[in-house]
């Protein structure tokens, strides 16, 4: 920092020596050098530094994102999109590909204004990663943010896509609950609302029944083997004490929608705290379904 304010060429020499001789695989010093060159107007130099780092230490998401942001800041959106698509195509695993697909969709929608392209990117990612709830949430958030009032039919199509997917029963139950809440807030047809509500109630019963059967099955297999062996040795059978079953998990909110004329407006929370460890904020915030969340793939070994 001291040299940067006194001697540009001196600072450049220090960065060059550190990155090429002493710390050739240290990401932070390379990122700082690239930012320094960009600040000096040496865009080609900054590009070369980031590209060299990516080749020396492949699999670092931050380096790819820094390359994209450099192109975006210089107005070269074509190159920025190309880097994102290459990252999706060359990703080493499905989780990394989904991560860059989310970033690509955000870039297309918010920077280029290409909403349809963003949807396509997310749907292609879903085809390859069908059990990733994050992708469905991103697609839903993207559709919800279109216009002042969300398109009811298109948002419901996103919900239906998630419900027909290979997501877990818990995830589908959450999507079903959110679907009911969405129609409560923005739906235009009460008959549709009640139909969706009835479907949700059936799903709640099925989900609760499955959990209860799983608990009972676990209880049947939990008898200690030592007791069974002792009974065989004595040659007699004694009636064991009745087993105390743990209480079944409480079913999700299955109360009918509140009457808006008599009850205060509900405070909905769209956070997926179970799946993504997000804190509850007790507010109705669709933004937390989408681009504000930080979603990074695990570091490459």
Question: Rg, please?
Answer: 27 Å
Distance between the termini: 32 Å
Choose one word for the global shape. Answer: elongated
Low-confidence stretches: 227-233, 235-240, 242-246, 248-256, 258-296
Query: What is the tally of helical segments?
Result: 14
> Which structural class best describes the helix and strand composition?
mainly alpha
The biggest beta sheet reads: none
The averaged pLDDT comes out at 79
Query: Could you tell me the number of beta strands?
Result: 0
The H/E string reads HHHHHHHHHHHHHH
* Helical amount: 55-70%
Strand content: under 5%
SSE map:
Elements: H1 2-6, H2 8-22, H3 27-39, H4 43-56, H5 61-73, H6 77-89, H7 94-111, H8 115-128, H9 133-144, H10 152-163, H11 169-186, H12 190-220, H13 225-234, H14 273-276
Name the descriptors:
mainly alpha, 14 helices, single chain
Describe the overall structure.
The protein has 301 residues and is an all-alpha fold. It has 14 helices and no strands. It has helices spanning 2-6, 8-22, 27-39, 43-56, 61-73, 77-89, 94-111, 115-128, 133-144, 152-163, 169-186, 190-220, 225-234, 273-276. Helix 6 runs antiparallel to helix 7 (94-111), helix 8 (115-128) runs antiparallel to helix 9 and helix 9 packs antiparallel against helix 10. The radius of gyration is 27 Å and the shape is elongated.
